[in-house]
Amino acid sequence: MSRDLAIDLGTANTLVWARGEGIVLNEPSVIALNTRSGDVLAIGRDARKMIGRTPSHIVAVRPLRQGAITDFEITERMIRLVLHRAGVSRFNRPRVIICVPSAITAVEQRAVREAARRAGAAEAHLLEQPMAAAIGAGLPIDQPIGNMVVDIGGGTTETALISLGGVVALEAVRVGSFDIDATIQTYVRREHGIAVGEQTAEQIKLAIGSAYPSDEEWGAEVRGRELMSGLPRTVTLTASEMRDAIDEPLSAMVDSVVSCLGSAPPELAQDLIVRGIHLVGGGGMLRGMDTRIAKAAQVPVTLVNQPLEAVVLGAGQCIESFDEVRDMFMTSRSRR
To answer: What are the pLDDT digits (tens) for 46-75?
Structure first.
């Protein structure tokens, strides 16, 4: 049995699923490079720790931004390192399914396929993330039933209405969790005169960020550099303050879901009143995100059991079907 792989090539995290083993890699989509020598210094969590903490000749970058490939060469090097960590060598060339945002262009699709082949894959197939997420969430996508999935990733928010194995309506916006982090950085700088880094903004979001008011809300102390004096300073932020600060990117996400609902055929739209919308992705785990979408869309919203892993698990199920299709073909040939 070949050790085929499924890869969720996300803006925030890269996950790898291996046949017979499950998820074997879950790392941030970050790579650290020495610009003088061109050497790769670190990848994943080790590289993420370097963001904002490196000398001028060392850069820690995310090769994918807003669902698009910003640097093809660095993306290829990252895919090569990811496959190497997953056990791929010149003696072991697996078939690979790579999950990509639906917003990427045809040129980027070819670049991802070519990068995977150069990195050691025998075959490279692409699968759109909303479709993979629906499969991973266990939705009956092969039935004539409306299944809506909202995938809120680091760089994009993708809403897909799926029926009979195909996408009936799709809405994708280049707004995601990183935009929430950037909005927090801008707000703290503008309102409090404090400069904070990308990782600090993410910690603020996880601590007190929310999309909808709740009964239990609290504040958080934030440490950063004061712009006027250049000295370290601590300020206290509240949950309601943060909710107002990040309202713009959240509204863009919710509006994209409502827009996708508006383009749904009537028969499938009525299915959603009963079946609801399924929420996946790291951004879907923001407090109150499901409630906010449900209020705007007027349909129930459910966060799936494994929102971060749903995409790669769905791609893994597609890999399992590789051999099923081949066995069916071989059986039909033997009967002739």
So the answer is: 888 888 788 888 888 888 776 677 777 888
Strands across the sheet with 232-238, in order?
194-195, 219-226, 232-238
DSSP string, 201-263: HHHHHHHH-BSS--S---EEEEEEEETTT-SEEEEEEEHHHHHHHTHHHHHHHHHHHHHHHHT
What is the distance between the alpha carbons of residues 218 and 227, in angstroms, rounded to a whole number? 26
Using CA atoms, how far residue 36 sits from 49, 187, 215, in Å, is: 20, 35, 53
Rounded Cα–Cα distance for residues 149 and 137 (Å): 9
Rounded to an integer, what distance in angstroms lies between the CA atom of residue 254 and that of residue 295?
Answer: 10
Q: Where do the domains of the chain lie, and which CATH numbers do they carry?
A: 5-131+310-335 (3.30.420.40), 134-175+249-303 (3.30.420.40), 177-247 (3.90.640.10)
Is residue 288 within 8 Å of residue 303, measured between CB atoms? no
Cα–Cα distance for residue pair 272/335, rounded to 1 Å:
43
**Which DSSP helix (H) or strand (E) runs through 116?**
helix 106-118
pLDDT the model gives residue 162: 93
Tokens standing for 259?
């827009």
